[in-house]
Amino acid sequence: MPGQSQIRHPSSADLALIALGDGAPHATKRHLSRCATCSTTLQEFFRVLEAGRAGPARPAPPPADVWEEIRRRL
After folding, report:
1. Close Cβ partners of 25 (under 8 Å, ≥ 6 residues apart)
2. Which of 8, 33, 34, 59 has its CA 20 to 30 A from that of 42?
3. pLDDT per residue as tens digits for the range 30-73
4. Alpha-carbon gap, residue 44 to 24, rounded angstroms
């Protein structure tokens, strides 16, 4: 509609980079302080990063029967 400004939300990629520590431009910080949707999305990225960092440093090895099946198929 004429006369109304459109809200420009940061992209998911921008929010992910902010969560990773790239910082945010002043306009984006201001937007995040006023937009519950974008703020919630950014918090979700923070939770995902926290969960990933809290997990094991290496994945658990597969069970022995998996290796047996791989050997059998080779």
Report:
1. none
2. 59
3. 999 999 999 999 999 999 999 888 877 777 888 889 989 888 89
4. 17
